[in-house]
């Protein structure tokens, strides 16, 4: 497993990061282009806040954890300045998207814009401790907590009272964000919040009959027999499991580490396409046709997140099943998504693993899952004990 | 071409309509089930207003135009009663969806719920002239016109002023709805409205460089170089062209008939998958990756609408190109979508024309496009002059 570390580091630093350095910076209006075709050409100039925040985070993190390269810090500042100047409405909520010049296009209906902006400013503050970065990160985080019970606010189309569902995405992102914001928040807030989130993800959204995590449940955690209640997103479960595993390792909670690994393995088994390989994007837990027409497609991020999850699972327990899955995921992912010819990775394949959209970035894919995943695997496996996995068992 | 008429009539009356008669009626709570699996079993009980209105329309229309079967009238009344009782909020806007019992699930953010409800009540009034049906149809139609400039109202997520786009869907549906509502509305309103709609569809949304119709344009009709502005929906264009052709035939406007046919033929050429056959769901007019992950899928409705459009085009002009396209579409559509074994038609195929979702109805597919299309083709070709297409030329 240790040998993978070098490969992932090399891919991160020699292929993926240079691609974004070269193609994504908007020198004219600030911020980042993310709609990049196979060759890196910009095919659309809109700026999506999720991806502005994520790229800001990425370059801050690399500067913090990999090497103090001035060009990385400059990229992070470049993203943060654009977000600071154009990203928020008068109440401090982050818009969903802006045009190239920074004028708002889509209202702040989506709380994940705020999550990824907070993540970006939080990480940048670590390496460039300007008060305003800390202020924006803290205020935004507080705003997320305030909006937590009704994140879509007035943009919610659900009629209240008939079928009030709880959605898994926000606690899942908060499990990661609370660790990312650790240096900026009260220790007691982090403690109580992470405890609450673990309980929510592993208690409320966990579905004992299948051993999986549901995307939407009734308020009391019970199963909702409707499209939203039946949908399973294997990649989402697996990503959440490494977030929770990080919290568990930090707490020294071995039992929780093991639970996250079992659920991740369940999701891999359940989500894997036995015919063509790769993880399905969505499935219906009762085997009915899912609502999502893209259900059978293979997306980059579930596979990258699964690699991270299995690397961490192996490092924490030496569990052979995790090693086997890592090998299988590695072969599939590198063969299917990586673009040998023009750099970076494709994002969207059809069920047969043929490229469906020949883009390197778009509305949802930016400088995030691929480089974060490469970094996580490289760091996780860097010091793993070869042939002595028992040594790193918790 | 005339021979097709019998086949389409038979498919309508012996396969498709019996399927919905048998499986879609909710005897317990009223309204219709539309989430039906391959065999006709209900897999989800939510009631989507689009499909409640459309099925009400379908059975009313069949009773009006095909045969005065009591069971068809009963189905229409069954749908209308449910819509009347549960469909609207206090302001008379139709919700998007209800649960099985009729309690609102999703708010009235979508004006097409109102369009299809008005269409259903309007058609039912023709065959069952109760004042309340006319009232609901008229009031709802007026409400649609009032909401026309800002159909999503408070649920719109677009930030006003940055990139105000006009969307093609509402004028397109109104071109059909205004004819469907003819018996209930002022003649002068219909005249001015249809004139306005023709101008909007054929003027504002028409894109001269490609000969196609755009889904979204700037307020002045100019091209918007963004995802929404670049997207082409070939099936949508072709469906709109038969709506406008109906208006043109009614006005005796031969030049307009010919323009609709040229645009429909452009859309067929442009949308056809040269490798696997069938019409793509979405394309980007500049050849960039579209936003819609389902872009390369083959959906039932564009093909059914294309059959209707080519049948009408042939009947109106005898144009051989339309006959050739009809033959080609017929072979492809009947071979790919029709389920010989369990009745009705599949709705969603992947690019290779394999069944992607083995359902007969769902959130968007109900008792509508297939039976309406079969009816339209059967009626259109019933009296077409064999071997003498010149005779029916305008």
From TrEMBL, chains A, B:
Keywords: Isomerase. The keyword Lyase does not apply. GO terms for molecular function: isomerase activity. Pfam families: GlcNAc_2-epim. InterPro entries: 6-hairpin_glycosidase_sf, 6hp_glycosidase-like_sf, AGE/CE, AGE_dom. GO terms for biological process: carbohydrate metabolic process. Belongs to the N-acylglucosamine 2-epimerase family. This is AGE family epimerase/isomerase. It comes from Nibribacter ruber. The lineage of its organism: Bacteria, Pseudomonadati, Bacteroidota, Cytophagia, Cytophagales.
């Amino acid at each position: 497993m240790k040998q993978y570390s070098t490969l992932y580091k090399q891919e991160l630093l020699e292929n993926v990061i240079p691609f974004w350095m070269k193609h994504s910076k908007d020198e004219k209006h600030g911020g980042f282009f993310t709609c990049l075709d196979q060759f890196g050409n910009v095919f659309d100039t809109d700026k999506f806040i999720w991806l502005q925040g994520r790229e800001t985070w990425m370059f801050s993190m690399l500067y913090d954890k990999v090497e103090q390269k001035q060009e990385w810090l400059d990229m992070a500042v470049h993203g943060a300045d654009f977000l600071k100047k154009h990203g928020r409405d008068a109440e401090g909520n982050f818009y969903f998207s802006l045009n190239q010049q920074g004028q708002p296009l889509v209202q702040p209906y989506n709380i994940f814009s705020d999550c990824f902006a907070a993540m970006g400013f939080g990480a940048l503050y670590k390496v460039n401790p300007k008060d305003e970065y800390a202020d924006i990160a803290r205020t935004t985080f507080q705003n997320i907590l305030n909006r937590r019970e009704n994140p879509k606010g007035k943009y919610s189309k659900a009629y209240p009272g008939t079928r009030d569902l709880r959605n898994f995405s926000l606690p899942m992102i908060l499990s990661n964000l609370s660790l990312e914001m650790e240096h900026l928040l009260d220790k007691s807030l982090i403690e109580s919040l992470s405890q609450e989130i673990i309980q929510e993800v592993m208690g409320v959204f966990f579905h004992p009959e299948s051993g999986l995590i549901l995307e939407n449940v009734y308020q009391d955690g019970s199963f909702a027999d409707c499209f939203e209640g039946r949908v399973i997103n294997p990649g989402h479960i697996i990503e959440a499991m490494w977030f929770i595993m990080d919290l568990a390792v930090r707490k020294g909670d071995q039992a929780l580490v093991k639970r996250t690994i079992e659920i991740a393995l369940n999701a891999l088994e359940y989500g894997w396409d036995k015919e063509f390989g790769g993880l399905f994007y969505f499935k219906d837990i009762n085997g009915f046709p899912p609502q999502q027409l893209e259900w059978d497609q293979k997306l980059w991020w579930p596979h990258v997140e699964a690699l991270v999850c299995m690397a961490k699972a192996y490092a924490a327990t030496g569990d052979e099943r995790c090693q086997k899955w890592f090998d299988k995921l590695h072969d599939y992912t590198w063969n299917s998504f990586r673009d040998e010819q023009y750099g970076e990775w494709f994002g969207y394949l059809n069920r047969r693993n043929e490229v469906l959209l020949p883009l390197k970035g778009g509305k949802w894919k930016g400088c995030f899952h691929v480089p974060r995943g490469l970094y996580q695997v490289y760091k996780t496996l860097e010091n793993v004990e070869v042939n002595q996995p028992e040594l790193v068992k918790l």
